[in-house]
Amino acid sequence: MHSGYLPAMVTSPPAPRPGAPNRVFRQLRGDRSQGEFAAAVRRAAREIGERVSCDARYIGRVEAGEIRCPNYAYERVFLHMFPGRSLGELGFEPRQVVRARRPRARSLSADPALPVAGPDGVPIDDTLDNTMEEGDVLRRAFMTGGPAAVASLAALGERPLSAGPVPRPGAREAAAVWQAVRDIRLLDDRQGADALYRPAVLALRSAYALLDSGARTASVGDRLHAGAGELALSVGWLAHDSGRLDEARSHYAEALATARVGGSAALEAHAFCNAAFLAGDAGRPREAVRAAQAGDHAARALGSHHLRALLALREAGGWARMGDRASAQEALTRARRHYGRGANDEDPEWMSFFGQAEFADLEATCWAALGDARRAANHSRAAVDAALAEPHFARNIALYSAELAARLVDDGEPEEAAAHGHRALDLLEQVRSTRIRGRLADTAERLRPARHDATVAAFLDRGSRGAFAA
Q1: Could you tell me the superkingdom of the organism this chain comes from (predicted)?
Q2: Which among 92, 199, 225, 269 could disulfide-bond with 298, CB atoms 3.0 to 4.6 Å apart, if both were Cys?
Q3: Which of helix, strand or coil describes residue 387?
Q4: 369 belongs to a structural domain
Q5: Residues of 253-292 as b/e, b for ≥16 C-beta within 10 angstroms?
Q6: Residue 414: closest CA among 383, 440, 444
Q7: 343 part of a folded domain
Q8: How many CA atoms, within 13 angstroms, populate the side-chain half-sphere of residue 270?
Q9: pLDDT tens for each residue of the chain, 470 residues long
Q10: Domain boundary among 209, 239, 263
């Protein structure tokens, strides 16, 4: 708890009308000056491993109603400062309202007036008002990227409750579940999470309907258990990357339960690995360490050195966010040792993203959390250079570029930071990721003092024209 942040007897009136002063936030500030409150915000950010350039001017803009909904970095900090409260209870408006989206029919595109391009340029409808439309989106998203079995899997999600039980699944249905997993991963690499999340949830619902109906044979049941668990992890990742952290945590817990029921050490290690990543992003570093260690315990018998390297990096990130430099360095050393043993046939299929670029980016994250800006920026540069050699991972190039931009600001290189921010924004024209856009928006806030530089000014101008909106 952080009772020092919260004045006593603060009421929680409804969020202000658009453009109105945020009187709730003003009340939360209490008798502190705007500058003092901004300092408290920065301290809270450091506690959870966030970096925000909050100053008195920012607090003034919030209180004046100019900032109707904070970006994701500030959101995490404010919710950490005032536990148990929602953004609405802090006086902000819902993000979908600020971005002119209908709450019950959220657009899947960055611009509600534009259709979302599915695989091979097939447009996806941008409103999902009922289950039938969701099923249509799913078919169009996956049928063009995989076999017809995926379309059959999707159709199960459209069956009304009155349609009776789902037929007992066999090898074909199990194969369809696994194909959906592979298609989601492929499309995420190309397009990012935002456009895929809701259709992927429908596929997950269908997979668990198959699992609940009882497989025809034990071997099919084992394959369905593993496939449904991997699908839950893929959907959880889409939730994580699109800013739905609570939903991501729920999907990961579902996958872990499936792993335990099915007795799958591989699925259990994967679930703990994803849970550790999420816990780090959500400001729960100790949980990240525990999850990574549990994942490593499950992975020991699997024979994948790269999996253990990734889990050691997740653990290192947790220690770094807690400021434990010695433990972080020990985990990093362990990660390098495992990675140096090389890839092998035991490496899980889902780890195709894990190479030199990802290793360098995760190591950069650790050094950034430990306050070593120069070393973090150098590792981030290495991540971008390695990623550019694999252009099919468009989302990762965008992510590494955004991370590098942020770290270059920390290292006092605003012009180079803006240049890499431009690259990330270029890639976000084809890749939809709320998480990356939020990172860039925070970087832009911290670049404002250098807006006299032409490259920085151009980057900020793109942001002012809505480039950071998901």
Answers
A1: Bacteria
A2: 269
A3: helix
A4: no
A5: ebbbebbeebebebbbbbbbbbbbbbbbbbbbbebbbbbb
A6: 444
A7: no
A8: 26
A9: 333 333 333 333 444 454 589 999 999 999 888 888 988 898 888 877 766 678 888 898 899 888 888 876 788 889 889 988 888 889 998 866 664 443 333 322 222 222 223 332 222 222 222 223 333 333 343 334 333 333 444 444 444 434 455 578 888 888 888 888 887 877 776 666 677 888 888 888 888 888 888 888 888 888 989 999 999 999 999 999 888 999 999 999 999 999 998 889 999 999 999 999 999 999 999 999 999 999 999 999 999 999 999 999 999 999 999 999 999 999 999 999 999 999 888 898 888 889 899 999 999 999 999 999 999 999 999 999 998 877 667 788 899 999 999 999 999 999 999 999 999 998 887 777 788 888 999 999 999 999 999 999 999 998 888 777 75
A10: 263
List, in sequence order, every residue forming a beta bridge with 117; answer none if it has no partner.
123
Q: Tell whether 75 and 141 lie within a shared domain.
A: no
Q: Does a structural domain hold residue 335? A: no
Q: Report the number of distinct structural domains present in the chain.
A: 3
- Mark whether 94 and 160 lie in a shared domain: no
Instruction: Tell me the C-alpha distance between 231 and 300, whole Å.
Output: 23
Kindly state whether residues 144 and 207 are assigned to the same domain.
yes
Query: Which pair of tokens denotes residue 139?
Result: 């078919």
Q: Which of 245, 241, 236, 312 is nearest to 267 (CA)?
A: 236
Are the C-beta atoms of residues 46 and 320 closer than 8 Å to each other? no
The answer to whether residues 140 and 83 belong to one domain is no
| Token output for 451 | 């807006």
Residues 241 and 153 in one domain: yes
Spatial CA neighbour of 315 closest among 336, 287, 282: 287
Structural domain of residue 436, as residue ranges?
Answer: 376-470
